[in-house]
TrEMBL record, chain A:
EC number: 2.7.3.2
Binding site for ATP: 161-165, 224, 269, 325-329, 353-358
An example Gene Ontology molecular-function term: creatine kinase activity
Subcellular location: Mitochondrion inner membrane
Role this protein plays: Reversibly catalyzes the transfer of phosphate between ATP and various phosphogens (e.g. creatine phosphate). Creatine kinase isoenzymes play a central role in energy transduction in tissues with large, fluctuating energy demands, such as skeletal muscle, heart, brain and spermatozoa.
Membrane topology, as annotated: Peripheral membrane protein
Protein name: Creatine kinase S-type, mitochondrial
Keyword Transferase: yes
Organism: Coilia grayii (Gray's grenadier anchovy)
Family per similarity comment: Belongs to the ATP:guanido phosphotransferase family.
Automatic annotation (TrEMBL), chain B:
Cross-referenced InterPro entries: ATP-guanido_PTrfase (IPR000749), ATP-guanido_PTrfase_AS (IPR022415), ATP-guanido_PTrfase_cat (IPR022414), ATP-guanido_PTrfase_N (IPR022413), ATP-guanido_PTrfase_N_sf (IPR036802), Gln_synth/guanido_kin_cat_dom (IPR014746)
Residues of the Phosphagen kinase N-terminal domain: 11-98
Protein name: creatine kinase
Family note: Belongs to the ATP:guanido phosphotransferase family.
PANTHER family listed in its UniProt record: ARGININE OR CREATINE KINASE (PTHR11547), CREATINE KINASE B-TYPE (PTHR11547:SF23)
Keywords: ATP-binding, Kinase, Nucleotide-binding, Transferase
Species in which this protein is naturally found: Coilia grayii (Gray's grenadier anchovy)
Top-level taxon: Eukaryota
Amino acid sequence: MASAFTKIMTVRNTAVLLASLGAGTVATGYMLSDNAALSATDRTKLYPPSSDFPDLRKHNNCMASALTPALYAKLRDKVTPSNWTLDQCIQTGVDNPGHPFIKTVGMVAGDEESYEVFAEVFNPIIKDRHNGYDPITMKHPTDLDASKLTSGMFDENYVLSSRVRTGRSIRGLSLPPACTRAERREVERVVVTALSGLKGDLAGHYYGLGDMTEAEQQRLIDDHFLFDKPVSPLLTCAGMARDWPDARGIWHNNEKTFLIWINEEDHTRVISMEKGGNMKRVFERFCRGLKQVESLIQERGWEFMWNEHLGYILTCPSNLGTGLRAGVHVKLPKLSQDARFNKILENLRLQKRGTGGVDTAAVGDTFDISNLDRLGKSEVELVQVVVDGVNYLIDCEKRLEKGQDIKVPSPISQFKK
Amino acid sequence: MPFSNTHNAMKLKFSANAEFPDLSKHNNHMAKILTPAMYDHLRSKQTPSGFTLDDVIQTGVDNPGHPFIMTVGCVAGDEETYEVFKELLDPVIQDRHGGYKPSDKHKTDLNPANLKGGDDLDPNYVLSSRVRTGRSIRGFCLPPHCSRGERRAIEKLSVEALDALDGDLKGKYYALKNMTDAEQQQLIDDHFLFDKPVSPLLLAAGMARDWPDARGIWHNDNKTFLVWVNEEDHLRVISMQKGGNMREVFTRFCTGLTKIESLFKAKGHPFMWNEHLGYVLTCPSNLGTGLRGGVHVKLPNLSKHAKFDEVLKKLRLQKRGTGGVDTAAVGGVFDISNADRLGFSEVELVQMVVDGVKLLVDMEKQLEKGGSIDGLMPAQK
């Protein structure tokens, strides 16, 4: 690999540097002449892992908790089959120390094999983020049979809209932090070709970000479908915004209830949504759409990244397993004022957000309520958690309206151990 | 991008056309020069430390540029970048630096005795004088490409060299990650503190990685000589003071730089320099001298004159607001500096600033009296 390219420049004998270099380096006794150019392999000898270990003392993310100098030393010079390195996986976590109150993940995968080659760092992070899920011993269940969902119709006096989203990666192509332009364009081609095979209520149209007209752009903004170049440093430091807007786009069906983002944070983000409380129908469409897209790409010899321990493989470890966030916009004026609200959510394994999405504040009394977990429970299980949980919340709201008392439910189990 | 980028080998599985960036909406030097054929020819190459063509151009791909401002759109990851990718960079340099040819030689002259005058710019008009440049340390990768270990080694070496300065150059280093709140506030008040880059031009080139690790500011006790470590270049060196004595500023600049250079040489790390490109820096726009010598000068009347821009052009000078590049002038006070970097020596460039500013002030005085500047119009330098 590297050796073929290091022959391009002649390397004259190289020199003592190391005594004068940073802490922890080992003097090797090289002599650097004026014109010497060190090869990449020379550099790894000149700068041992201890000299490269990031300063994580002010950091508060999962990567900083998991990465030790010993692990870094062991893994620094390893590469995945597409030559992706540990430094490239952790750069986002080094550059973004994190917030004292929010623990970000701090590490991304460049390809499917990252999770394997750098398992010794990824596994503790996965455990940390996914409530003790152990990728080595545990198996993740995948279940996209929407018929198993019960009571999936919410009271529309309370629930304004219902939505389920996930992501999918195309096996054999690098992920957004690492992909080349050709790979990214290939992802676009594979997915758009498959989507053009969808029929009936799923038939739709693709809008490439670079090609869309002003009118199309405005319409997509008005529909709340358009995604823009990432501004979050968590994403930009991971290299996910490179070459923007090349090979990025939005596909949606004519009915505007099934939407796919291409080459944003993941190869694809798949969203099923509609106004009102029919989560059953939203989830049914979600599963049907996903399965059809999967068989359409399989017809052409492609498949999604998946394995039995990590489920669906996505760029960020926080989205492993199902990558699924199922949620509703729901009005809970009384319950949200009750001191027990957060505890009830916690026990139901639900999360609240403002209706602008993650990190926004709730406006009025309307909340975005969704599942907390992603890995260790199947899609059906997680959507059932949301259905049961939201029904419980609405029941509490109704009781409070009538002046009745409510109960904090016992915590539901996280996953079958 | 992180060093030892053998990831490039994988891209060769795809055709050059499949990988070629979409530059149809771009307006920067790189986009004007890079063709699919050139891309095909260069994409399999790497510098010895692993810097690739895609690494060179990423910032230009990610930042299409402004319809009116022509950015460069490429950066170097190490000294060898300018050699390995000369097929792209020579025309970029030629375009950016007024026709500078691959065969041209750049003259370095840091002897302040060669400057004529410059100590008598009228302080009623010239508020402050400043000269800055950059230096790269041979043997290390540049900010877009260096590893944490290298960046720390650069810092350590630089601090050791700077600590050896004495006399009016004696000073102290403030590492960005260790400074106290009090130190930080003082450096802000002195207008010395630099912050993490926010410009997408720099971010897309990977220069803000690992911030603030191994970044810092050194300045002398007199606060007239300042060195930035590991910002856009390994070192940025600045000499400045209030008033119009550019001669003194330039003298201190040359003396300080020469001393620093010999200290680095003694440690086995001379500055990156060659007789074609002069001092080698991260951005091709800063090759040669990397020098911007300038003043903050009051020109309320002249700046409103129809021929102001023409005069500046003839004098090979450039105007900016006093907040720096891309800011607007406030209260008729302009930052006036040399437009060139490569193909002229340091002495020549500062001479242009000194002579040019003298003329501008004379013109301002003429206009104040209600006179005309027609008789003062200079020839094209």
